[in-house]
């Protein structure tokens, strides 16, 4: 049992905006949930800031865990410029985690965040206890280097229909996917005060280049990842092909895999009611 704490914030929309300085960078972050125990650090996706986390995923985890979400270097309200490689982003994440005084964490990662998380675990294995990898793929993974093309194409499609690009990038354009996409975008607007700084175009472009480099690099030795790992995705991920989730599952010994039907890159957000309890259970074990 965790000790009872007064006035614990368990809603992401109420989490105060904080900053910490480390290695010449001011990192923006938010924390919520009961302190004590191993914190769960959330690694966000491409072109995303702190406002891009689905409260229906974070809030159930924060009900029983100390949760920290952050902007890596050069992203959102964090200072500095985005590094040109996933490995350097992992080093920055480790610097941020060290600045908060954590010596052991669980990671919840989505998309680009999942790539950074893999690089972090390989470089700093002692830092991570458990790993949740969603909508992501390994270094050298098939078609990861095509993410930029898919992204620009969907941004154009979204602009033409005055929609949020995430509705195209994360969700199927069918009778199930379209309303799920709209509902997801609406949930991201629940926080009205103290919102994060937008991600700059140059930061987004540098992230895309780093992803392309990751996709074209030599396959990583994932047998190095010995942490309990939960992998999840939709069955029709156009950004980071769903087969890469299966590839991760095959190569990370003892990992668990959840694939949601009739859903895309944002499968965990479309199926948040089903997925959040799975993640909570996995982290609690």
From TrEMBL:
Any one Pfam family match given in the protein's UniProt record, by short name: Abhydrolase_1
Domain AB hydrolase-1: 40-269
UniProt GO molecular function: catalytic activity
InterPro entries, sorted: AB_hydrolase (IPR050471), AB_hydrolase_1 (IPR000073), AB_hydrolase_fold (IPR029058)
Annotated PANTHER family: AB HYDROLASE-1 DOMAIN-CONTAINING PROTEIN, HYDROLASE, ALPHA/BETA FOLD FAMILY PROTEIN
Record's protein name: Pimeloyl-ACP methyl ester carboxylesterase
């Amino acid at each position: 049992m965790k000790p009872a704490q007064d006035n614990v914030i368990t809603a992401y929309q109420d989490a105060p905006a904080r900053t910490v300085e480390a290695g010449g960078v001011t990192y923006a972050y938010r924390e919520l949930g009961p302190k004590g125990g191993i914190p769960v650090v959330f690694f966000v996706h491409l072109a995303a800031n702190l406002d891009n986390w689905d409260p229906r995923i974070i809030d159930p985890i924060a009900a029983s865990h100390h949760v920290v979400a952050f902007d890596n270097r050069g992203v959102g309200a964090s200072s500095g410029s985005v590094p040109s490689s996933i490995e350097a982003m992992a080093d920055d994440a480790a610097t941020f985690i060290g600045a908060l005084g954590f010596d052991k964490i669980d990671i919840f990662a989505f998309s680009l965040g999942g790539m950074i998380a893999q690089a972090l675990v390989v470089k700093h294995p002692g830092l991570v206890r458990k790993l949740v990898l969603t909508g992501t793929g390994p270094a050298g993974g098939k078609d990861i280097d095509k993410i930029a093309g898919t992204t620009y194409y969907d941004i154009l499609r979204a602009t033409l229909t005055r929609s949020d690009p995430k509705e195209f990038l994360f969700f199927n354009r069918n009778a199930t996917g379209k309303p799920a996409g709209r509902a997801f975008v609406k949930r991201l607007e629940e926080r009205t005060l103290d919102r994060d700084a937008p991600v700059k175009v140059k930061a987004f472009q540098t992230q895309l280049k780093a992803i392309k480099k990751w996709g074209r690099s030599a396959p990583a030795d994932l047998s190095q990842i010995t942490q309990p790992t939960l992998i999840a995705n939709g069955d029709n991920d156009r950004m980071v092909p769903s087969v890469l989730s299966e590839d991760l599952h095959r190569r990370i010994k003892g990992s668990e895999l959840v694939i949601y039907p009739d859903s895309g890159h944002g499968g965990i957000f479309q199926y948040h009611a089903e997925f959040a309890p799975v993640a909570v259970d996995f982290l609690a074990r």
